[in-house]
Amino acid sequence: MDDLGRFADPSVLILTSLAGGPKHGYALIQDIESLAGTTIGPGTLYGALARLENRKLIRALPEEARRRPYEITPAGATALRAYLEHARQVTGAGLRRLAAYA
């Protein structure tokens, strides 16, 4: 997998993380590293959070102990599900085509 890099679109990783429940920035960074094996820097994270919030795919929750948690919205869940279903179709086709090289 290292030859092609990691599949690390920050928006997809953030939505996937938030599908497991609300999280603040540092918790998102940790969860994304755990689930995808990649690290998102704070600048990338907060830029992506702002874009997702502007598109109403996530929303900020009230601040807790100087931390701002975010949660996925129903529109965000729908968008993530559509993306993942499409990725599943592409993955299946790719694996079937690679079977000839096994």
Describe this structure in words.
By secondary structure, the protein is mostly helical. The protein has a single domain, classed as Orthogonal Bundle (Arc Repressor Mutant, subunit A), CATH 1.10.10.10. Helices cover 58% and strands 6% of the residues. It contains four helices and two strands; from the N terminus they run αααββα. The chain has a two-stranded antiparallel sheet. Helix 1 packs across helix 2. The radius of gyration is 15 Å and the shape is elongated. The N terminus is likely disordered.
Number of domains: 1
Give the low-confidence spans.
1-5
The fraction of residues assigned to DSSP E strands is 5-15%
DSSP summary: helix tally: 4
Determine the mean pLDDT: 91
Instruction: Choose one word for the global shape.
Output: elongated
Give me the secondary-structure topology:
Elements: H1 10-18, H2 25-36, H3 42-54, E1 58-60, E2 70-72, H4 74-98
Antiparallel strand pairs: 1-2
Descriptive keywords:
single chain; 102 residues; mainly alpha; Arc Repressor Mutant, subunit A; 2 strands; elongated; disordered N terminus
